[in-house]
Design brief:
The complex is a heterodimer of chains A (315) and B (283). Chain A is built from two helices and 21 strands. With 315 residues, chain A is mainly beta. With 283 residues, chain B is mainly beta. Chain B folds into two domains: 113 residues, Immunoglobulins (Immunoglobulin-like), CATH 2.60.40.10; 127 residues. Chain B is 8% helix and 50% strand. The chains are: A mainly beta (315), B mainly beta (283). Chains A and B meet through strand 4, strand 9, strand 10 and strand 20 of A and strand 7, strand 12 and strand 17 of B.
Chain lengths: 315, 283
């Protein structure tokens, strides 16, 4: 009986060890053997261009006789390449301070070449941008000046979602078990490799028409800017109407031309969420599953800040 | 014994953690409070009771407890020259530096008034000599405030915007008796630009009186000058609470930023301190 208890103990310990090892295994696709897992990872997520200040650049406090250097790290953690096409734009603007005090900063710079996540570079593209001022002029009688250093990235972005949908015009009244798929509404979680993504697709079959109600949302931490607004106006020159608008395009393989509402192909987001409806003429066919390709085009604006204190050098 | 050593080590560790390094900049705001020149009578100068026929000395410590350098005049008034004659009743005050990093208390000096042979009026047992020490000095107040300018007129979420416009900022003092007590910020569209207005409220927060019109100078946003609706507030206007100055500037629309708003007040201020002593007849 004692021997059995000892064996039992060993088994329990071995099982616990196994569980521990399994739980500690990283879930990044680096260890994923299958390419499909990597592809899935690359095409998911809710991030776009992420910025961070290099530690202590800018420092927390500087004297007015010092140079101000700000070093930004940019990483494209979404699934859309930036800086490759000729007219594509991604800019970083440094602000938050009075330009008559912190002078001579090249405050607006391009992000450079920032490819998105891909099967070959799962961490996305990386770049650094440097801003410098060697001329700080505190106004007379001002001993300290504490502006926040704010870096704002404005960039064009695109999210492509391709959820599988079931098309079933229901003309061939066969039993449910014989159908290839069942028409159902579903939620899409985790994003599609961009800060704006499709969150749910509601499907309605009305005769030979497939009607999709597609919900999109701002899943990132920044602000959506209309693709109709020029990046050159971002951030300071933007108006209220320039915010929270996404251009959409939906297509169904072999589904004919979509008729969408809003007709002009732009959906406005309220509280970060928006909805558009697309109708496809699918004809009299038996049930089948096909990807619904939804393309969302938008500009995105994101900021980070660092505190700064400029102190007059004692005379 | 072990416990004591452990406690000492712990205290040492804690105190070491709290210490500033040599590289830490000095961070004390001397331009706060509402004090200026303070007059303090020196004890026993004169004694509270002296006998007729004796001379006397009135001494006062004059301290600059504000944050700005000053000069002016110091006088004694109210003494009857017949009974308590004073050799010289008015002096030039030496320049006195205000509080600063290198002079944390501010400059001070002792002013003496020398009195000669005292008398008591005929028929009286004693004479109560009341006097007033009076400092009239040039002073200034400098306002420095970080303000948020959002010329885009867009209330983008807090984390996107560099700063949030504060409609009103209140101040207790700038290290001088006359103070900017409130600044109101108003931003309005003006064509393609925006007009930024600052409404300054100015008050006498000291224990004395303003002795001249208050001049408003060097009103700047960053290094850019602002245009003000008036350049002076008279003593009368100050008393009647017509103590508001509006300064403005037109800026192009751009992203929100933090700037340094600065303004200077220049004025003459009067501070007094009462004193008395008794001249007693010798029987």
């Amino acid at each position: 009986m004692k021997g059995f208890d000892g064996n039992m103990k060993r088994v329990v310990i071995l099982f616990a060890l196994l569980l521990f090892v399994i739980s500690c295994t990283p879930k990044t696709p680096e260890n994923a053997q299958e390419l499909s897992a990597v592809t899935k990872y690359v095409r998911s997520g809710t991030r776009g261009v992420e910025m961070s200040f290099v530690q202590n650049v800018p420092p927390r406090q500087i004297y007015d006789t010092s140079d101000l250097v700000v070093l930004l790290e940019l990483r494209n953690l979404g699934n859309y390449d930036l800086g490759r096409e000729q007219f594509q734009q991604c800019i970083v603007q440094l602000g938050g301070f009075d330009k008559s005090i912190v002078r001579g900063v090249n405050e607006r710079q391009t992000c450079g070449d920032l490819p998105g996540k891909s099967e070959f570079a799962i961490d996305g593209g990386f770049n650094t941008v440097e801003f410098e001022s060697s001329s700080i002029l505190l106004p007379p009688d001002v001993d300290t000046y504490e502006p926040p250093i704010v870096a704002t990235a404005c960039y064009e972005y695109r999210t492509v979602a391709a959820p599988q949908v079931c098309i079933d015009p229901d003309f061939f009244e066969i039993t449910g078990t014989q159908r290839a798929c069942a028409v159902r509404d579903f939620a899409v979680g985790g994003g599609q490799g961009g800060p704006v993504g499709v969150t749910s697709v509601n499907v309605d079959m009305v005769g030979s028409k497939a009607i999709f109600q597609i919900e999109v949302a701002n899943l990132g931490s920044g602000r959506v800017v209309s693709p109709r607004a020029s990046i050159t106006q971002c951030p300071g020159g933007l108006r209220y109407k320039d915010f929270d608008e996404v251009q959409f395009h939906a297509e169904l393989s072999g589904g004919g031309a979509a008729k969408c509402v809003p007709q002009e192909g732009f959906v406005r987001l309220g509280n970060g969420k928006g909805r558009f409806v697309c109708t496809f003429q699918v004809g009299n066919v038996p049930a089948y599953e096909t990807p619904l390709r939804v393309e969302l085009n938008y500009n995105y604006m994101q900021s980070i800040r660092a505190p700064l204190q400029i102190i007059r050098t004692p005379e | 014994m072990k416990n004591l050593i452990s406690l000492l080590v712990l205290i040492l560790l804690l105190s070491a953690c709290g210490q500033n390094t040599a590289n830490d900049p000095i961070d004390v705001n001397y331009k706060s409070g509402t004090e200026g020149i303070e007059i303090q009578l020196v004890q026993n100068h004169p004694p509270s009771r002296i006998f007729e026929g004796s001379s006397f000395t009135i001494a006062a410590q004059v301290s600059n407890k504000g944050a700005y350098d000053t000069f002016g005049r110091f006088a004694i008034i109210g003494l009857d020259q017949t009974y308590t004659p004073i050799r010289e009743q008015e002096f030039e005050m030496p320049p006195l530096k205000g509080r600063s990093e290198s002079n944390t208390l501010g400059d001070f000096y002792v002013q003496e008034f020398f009195g000669e042979q005292t008398n008591v009026p005929p028929g009286a047992k004693e004479y109560r000599a009341k006097y007033l020490l009076l400092a009239i000095y040039e002073y200034m107040s400098i306002l420095n405030a970080d303000v948020c300018i959002n010329p885009a007129l867009l209330d983008i979420e807090r984390e996107q915007s560099s700063c949030t416009v504060q409609a009103k900022q209140h101040f207790s003092g700038q290290g001088a008796p006359v103070a900017f007590t409130q600044v109101e910020e108003v931003i309005t569209p003006s064509g393609e630009d925006v007009r930024i207005e600052f409404v300054f409220t100015i008050e006498n927060r000291g224990r004395g009186n303003v002795f001249s019109p208050i001049r408003i100078d060097d009103v700047r946003l960053g290094t850019k000058p602002l245009t003000c609706n008036k350049r002076e507030i008279t003593e009368e206007e100050l008393k009647q609470k017509r103590n508001i100055v509006v300064c403005s500037r037109t800026e192009p629309r751009q992203g929100a930023y933090t700037s340094a708003l600065s303004a200077t007040l220049q004025y003459t201020y009067k501070t007094t301190a009462p004193g008395e002593f008794v001249v007693q007849r010798i029987r």
